Amino acid sequence: MTTELQSSNLRSIFLLGATGYVGGQVLVSLAHDFPSFPIRALARNITPPKLTQLQALHSKLEVVEGSLSDHNVIEAEAQNADIVINVAAAGDTDSVNAIIRGLQQRSRSYTPTVPPIYIHMSGTGIMGDNARGELIVPDRLWVDTEFDLENIKTKLLTNACEAIVDAGKNEEIRTMIVFPGLIYGIGPGIQKISLPHRFYLNLAAQAGHSGSFGPGRNIAGLIHLKDVASAVSAVLKGALNGGKVGEKIGEGKEGFYFVLSKYMLSMMEFSNIVGDTLYKQGLISKTGSSPFSASIADKAGPFGYNIFGSSQFCRAERLTKELGWSAEHTETESLYDSLPKEIELAVKEMELQFPKI
User: What's the whole-model pTM score?
Assistant: First the structure.
C-alpha cells in the first residue's frame, strides 16, 4: 500500500542527483510513495544500460541530458516542474540559483499563484566545530526547530542554503532543506557507496593505511540511507498535505529538517572499521587506523578538517514532531554491520591501487 497523496494537484518532479548515491534511494522512495508523479532527472552521459538501471528504480522516469553546469537546462526544467528535489552537490550555488530562477518564473506564470516546492539536501557538516579531530566541549547543541543560518561561523557550505531560504521569504517558492548526518548503507542505484566512504578510501590508498583527520575523537551522527530517502518523502508529503494533524509544515526560515538517529560514533571508530576491513582483504599491513599525515590530509582541501575533522552536535526534532518520521532502518542495520560490506564493494568498484605490502 502506498501513501501517495491523491488530493494534491502538484505532480511533476525535477530531480537533480538521480545517478548519485542518495538519488538512487530517493527514486525508490518516490516510486513507492508517489507512484503516479512523473520524474524528469538531470543526468549526463547516460548509456542505455544506465538508463535501464534508473528506470528500474522508477518506471515514470525520463532523463534530461545535462550536468550541474548546464544552468539554462536546469532553469528551464525547474520552470516546468511543480516540485524540484535536489540531492546533487549541496553547495553548488550556481545550479541552485538556476533552480530558483526557474521556479520563480513558474510561480509568476500562475494566477492565482501556485507556489512550487523546492526540497534541497545539505548536511550537518555545515554545523561542524572545526575541532581538527579533537573532541571539545560544544558551544551549542544545534536543534532544527531553532536553527538559523546566521549562527553558522564557517560559511563554507552555507551560500546555497542562504539563497534557498531567501527565495522562500516572499512565498513564491516553498522551500525546505534537509540535513542528514553521516550516511551509510549500500545504495540501490548507479552509485552504491557514499561520497565520504569513497573519499576515505582514496586517502587510505594514497597513505597505505586507514586514517583520520587529527586524532579522530570528533563525533558524527549516523543515519541509514533508506532513512534519508524516507525523510525526503516525508517532507514532500508534509508539503503537499500538511503535518501530522494537517497543519502547515516548516518552510523558508523554518524549513530546516535534520535527518539523524540517536546513534553517534567517533571518526576514529569509523576509520578503524575501514582499516580492519582493508587489512582482512590483504590491502594494508596493519589493522585499525592512525591520523593521516599533513601531506595526505591536505589533499582533501578545505572540506577535510572542516567537515571530517569536526563534530556536529545536533538534535533532530522537526521530522518526528511535525511529520511522524522515524529512523527505522538505522535501528535494523547498524553501521558496524553495514560498513565492512560497503568497503569491500567500494574497493572492487573503484579499482583502487594500494601500496604493495
Answer: 0.94
